[in-house]
Amino acid sequence: MAAGCGNSDNQSIFDTKGPVASTELYTTMITLWVSVGIFVVVGSALVFALVRFRAPADLGPETPLPSQSHGNAALEAVLTLVSICLLVIIAWPTIPAIFKLDAMPTAEEKPVIIEAKGWQWWWEFTYLNTKKKVYVGNEMHIPVGRKILLRLESSDVIHSFWVPKLGGKTDVIPNQHNQMWLLADQKGVYYGQCAEYCGTSHANMRFKVVAGDADDFEKWIMHQDSAAVDPPAGSLAARGKEIFIKGPKEGQACSSCHMIKGTPAAGIVGPNLTHVGSRLNLASGILDNNDHDLKMWLHDPGAVKPGNHMATMAMPPLHLSDDEVNALAAYLEMLK
Predict the structure, then answer these.
(1) So what's the pLDDT on residue 314?
(2) Mean pLDDT computed over every residue of the chain
(3) Which CATH number goes with the domain that contains 255?
(4) Domain housing 33
(5) Coil, strand or helix: which one is 167?
(6) What local confidence, expressed as pLDDT, does residue 97 receive?
(7) H or E segment and range at residue 192
(8) DSSP 230-258
(9) Total domain count for the chain?
(10) What is the phi/psi pair of residue 168, to 5°?
(11) pTM for this model (two decimals)
């Protein structure tokens, strides 16, 4: 319980990095301390009553009852006024916070508009009002000091979008359009998580928010819109591209689910892999983006992330040889 109150964790609500999270933390702490005060007063009165009015050891049928008293208008009035004051103390910051966080950014504020779509079990981010309309999986880049308007969608079941250091949770519900806004005060990498149980790999449905300078953000957008590099003819990576496009066996083409811009791969039910080699993580934030983890993922995605569609939807089941894994890894690693 004490560890949960620390602020050194990657998903700590006590180490805020934006105005949304800071506002929510401020109202939370006021409510917490008022509640602690109530607990201390009521708990102390209860302990006093248990000790002061405990039954005597020689309690029997003939033992007279202690003096009984009922009703004290002055005391009741004081308790009622105290309760009202405590509610006012809680409401004073809470009501303005509700209106502040519920007011979405206006066009004059020039927010970055991003559609965040939850899938089982990964996140897709589509940039709707940037110079280029791009979409990426599990890694959301934003500029520091600029409001981000998030339009939350679900492709399957109920999810919940949560980046603890930047803002609170908002449900992502099928056939319902929810929205929220965030703003990062400083550069950094912030950890996100689905916060609503959504199936077997719910705990593995993670993502990263990368906050950087405005210039870096614009360069990132332009790069994400560019086509993937083509591997040298005859290379191991070229063999990997062939496996990706056509599959090691019929019905196992990676391109049926994933997109790589500039190639025939145009799948839309899995993450866009055009520049996957430049991302921080693999498999929705579970693995580091390195050669060892990539090959482990390709060998047995079901063991790394139980229930994921890469392991359950391939027909026939996907069983890549070491040579095929090496070739695919060589191709994906060069997609930077």
Answers:
(1) 58
(2) 90
(3) 2.60.40.420
(4) 12-46+76-103
(5) strand
(6) 94
(7) strand 188-194
(8) PPPTTSHHHHHHHHHHH-SSTT--GGGT-
(9) 3
(10) -80, -170
(11) 0.86
